[in-house]
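Entry:
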Amino acid sequence: MGKYKKLSHVVYKCEYHIVWVPNYRFRILTGEVKKLVEEDIKMLCEWKKCEIQEMSVQSDHIHLVLSIPPKLSISALMGVLKGKLAIKLFKSYPKMKQKPYWGNHFWARGYFVSTVGIDEDVIKRYVKYQEEEEKRIEEQQHSFDF
């Protein structure tokens, strides 16, 4: 089933596939810009206690597979990643603020997110088995009642 993580009051496996793109899908994530983005994503994820399973920075989009603690929402994490990365990119490369680029908006507004985990059929079988097992135990307990 994979590796579970622990916090003080929770055991979890919260893994997500996240994809986001620069505005207008410009093919800007190459060379030094790509290196900066990769390094900063690693640093920001470590700061937020997220574990990168896989990362792929393509010229016009980013794919991440992350393990995220349940106390952190995906939208909060994406706000940090996209916000901090845009600030750093504009400080490091001031010409990006000029046309034909972005003004002050580096990333497109949305993002894609999907959970990564156990196969749906496996979960359904587990839940069904648990229900059957609970009924069996309950029947055994009632058979001992006087």
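The domain at 5-117 is CATH 3.30.70.1290 (Alpha-Beta Plaits).
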